[in-house]
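Chapter summary example.
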Amino acid sequence: MRLGALLPRAVLVAMAWILATAAFTLAADRKIIGPSTTKPTAPAAAPHLRVPAVTGQAFVFAKGLLEDAGFAWRVSGPVHGYAGNQVVSQAPAAGTQVVDTGAPTVVIRLATGKYAQSGAPEDGSSYPGTAIKLVGSPAASLPHAPLVKKKAKPAAPKPAAPKPVKKTVVASTTKRPPAFHAHGARQEPLNEISLPARADRLAAWIATNPKRTGANVHRWLYQHAWIVDGANFGWWHGSQALEKLIAVDKRVERMWGMGRRSEVVARVALKRVRRLSR
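The structure predicted for these 278 residues follows.
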């Protein structure tokens, strides 16, 4: 009888102890965890790119300049992207600063060149382009949109700049007499390596057995087009460079399973160059 009377009191004491322990634990959790006071870091600003000048360039050189500068490109207008055609306009204009959105797309218009347009044209880069966003513009801008300039803050006086160092020309400045004179052809740039030297470098790179990737295929095609077009322009020792290029194309055929069409183009150019060089 006494045990039955004391049992309800023991149950009440146990329940009170459990509730007190739970309340203390909850208060401690709130005190320890609490709201976070860490401020989110601001995202880093995207890098900028400067649009290169390609107006007046042959199409084969213009697309290489744009891609080397980190841009995609697209041909607009009735004249399509053949190697010998000439760029007559570009948008955005040369020197425009744009945000690096991945591969900002530059739109170019072409005029028909002096050489035959054979094969399939290239009217766009081999990789997808991204929108043009001008520096200082809050949203993506059209190619012809004006550049938004910020007011420059007065800068502190800078120390006197050192005298500019004369740029060393990598390529040889030796005179390179043309193999023949083609009407309207671009003169060989002496600040670039000669066509035979370019073919030798291409052959040395192919000899390393690079994998067939989009970037490697583009590199080979770009150098191939430079040599073929330069030889057709009558540049120094073009026939010698084409002979080396044909050997490179044969190795590419064995290594990548492609290049037969490029070899045919090089052989046709070699036949023409030999005929005009006599």
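To summarize the output: The helical segments are 2-33, 59-68, 195-206, 214-232, 238-256, 260-276.
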